[in-house]
């Protein structure tokens, strides 16, 4: 993918800066790591399957095996599952987990620290706590994708498709979830730069396809021909929106945006039923986080010597439009790139940089 190569080149300077700290660190004595745990939102999601693919590739490259636990986006369920694992101690365990919402992050990392596990969180970090000031060094790092950037680029794609003027509605994710808030903040930024585009309504769709479909049905009944565009904070709800439009013969006529880059959504972009989505590097996310947590658990990296930028960082994502949808669908990950030996050369090679203060408010 030409745009992927360009992104890697553009990230090179940032990645080099991020890597300097660990290059200067003196590795401690390597310890044997046998247990890898991956806490995901769902086992039926393509995104989470890709995260697991990356994590398993790294684990297998060092002789380990990943146990996957699904929260079904219920933080309390996740705490109970990991509570049973941590109860017997988890020294030199690798734990990579999405806490489901900010409300469960601190409890999860503290329990991991009490069990002496090395934990990396995905997506959900409350603004007030960080890996370096809470349960450190066991809370090794936190990673996410830039939701403001996602919302902004999709919002500006809508603005361009509407010729700078029109009425739109927005489907939001789980309210306490940082990416849900960030993506709507990004849309607000786009609206400020596109004053002719008016936001008629925003509703919570909880990342759910059926809820997205039902909300769009209601909007079509309420606004009729005055509705010109639909912004969705994720692909699942966007796919539901397209289904509702198809019922009225409006698919492809009212532009819809999504985020996450599922293959189903990208196919809709390629066919013209969706306008755009953001493809996140889920395989890379699973691989990088498993590798960094393994490095901490094994003593290959001294967590105390990592910089704040190396412990709370964005991962790469790409805007998908009709121009690049076919190329992105055709691209398949080469698992030979996702071994521990390769990733440890620079854990931050494709990171756009540190998550800035205020991003998780």
From TrEMBL:
SUPFAM superfamilies: Periplasmic binding protein-like I (SSF53822). The keyword Nucleotide-binding does not apply. Its main location: other. Residues 41-299 form the Periplasmic binding protein domain. It is found in: Cell envelope. InterPro entries: Peripla_BP_I (IPR028082), SBP_2_dom (IPR025997). Keywords: Signal. Residues 1-30 form the signal peptide. PANTHER family: D-ALLOSE-BINDING PERIPLASMIC PROTEIN-RELATED. Belongs to the bacterial solute-binding protein 2 family. This is Ribose transport system substrate-binding protein. It comes from Labrys wisconsinensis. The lineage of its organism: Bacteria, Pseudomonadati, Pseudomonadota, Alphaproteobacteria, Hyphomicrobiales.
